[in-house]
Design goal:
Elements: E1 2-6, H1 9-20, E2 28-32, H2 39-49, E3 64-68, E4 72-77, H3 84-89, E5 101-106, E6 120-126, E7 134-140
Parallel strand pairs: 2-5, 2-6, 4-5
Antiparallel strand pairs: 1-7, 3-4, 6-7
Helix pairs in contact: 1-2
Length: 142
C-alpha cells in the first residue's frame, strides 16, 4: 500500500502522468473518492502519461469513453449507476480486459461486488484543513 499527498491539482496530475508509465496494458484502476476528490484530475494526468491529451477527459459526466493514443485508455464513470448490474447491462465488462491499454473507473465503489484481485484500487480524499491538498492511497495485490 502506498500513501501519497499532493498539494495542488498539478501535483496530482503530474504523479498520475508518471504513474501511467508503470502500469501495463490490461490493468484496471478503480478510483474511489467523494465529489471533487480528484478522480477526474488523476485520470487526466494518467491520460497524459499514455500519450493522450488531458483535455479529452472532461469532468462532465459521460458513462464510457474510449481513447486511442500510443496506448488505449478506457474511462468509465459509474456515478450515475446504481449497481454492478447497471454496469454489466451497459457492457462494462468489455472494458475490463483491454489488451491495448488501461481502464480507469471513477466511482468504482458502486461496483465493488465485481472487483477483481488484480485491479489497482486508488482511494482519494480531500484534506480536512487545506482545500488544495489530496491524500491518495494505492493498493495493489497482483
Ligand atoms: N491536490 C489536488 N488534487 C486534485 N484536485 C485538486 C487538488 N486541489 C484542488 N483540486 C481541485 O479539486 C477538484 C477535483 O475535481 P475532480 O473533477 O478531479 O474530482 P472528481 O473526484 O472527479 O469529482 P466527481 O466525483 O465530481 O467526478 C478540481 O477542481 C481540482 O482543481
Ligand atoms: Mg470525476
Amino acid at each position: 500500500m502506498k500513501k501519497l499527498t499532493f498539494k495542488s491539482p498539478d501535483e496530482t496530475k503530474s504523479f498520475a502522468k508518471d504513474y501511467a508509465s508503470q502500469i501495463p496494458n490490461g490493468k484496471v484502476l478503480a478510483l474511489i473518492g467523494n465529489l471533487g476528490a480528484g478522480k477526474t484530475t488523476f485520470s487526466q494526468g494518467f491520460a497524459l502519461g499514455l500519450g493522450l491529451d488531458d483535455s479529452i477527459i472532461s469532468p462532465t459526466f459521460k458513462l464510457v469513453s474510449e481513447y486511442h493514443g500510443e496506448r488505449m485508455l478506457n474511462h468509465i464513470d459509474c456515478y450515475r449507476l446504481d449497481s454492478s448490474r447497471d454496469f454489466l447491462n451497459i457492457g462494462g465488462e468489455n472494458f475490463l480486459n483491454c489488451q491495448d491499454g488501461v481502464t480507469i473507473i471513477e466511482w468504482a465503489d458502486i461496483i465493488k461486488d465485481i472487483w477483481l484481485d488484480d485491479w489497482i484500487i486508488i482511494y482519494l480524499d480531500r484534506d480536512e484543513s487545506d482545500e488544495h491538498t489530496r491524500h491518495i492511497t494505492i493498493t495493489q495485490n497482483a
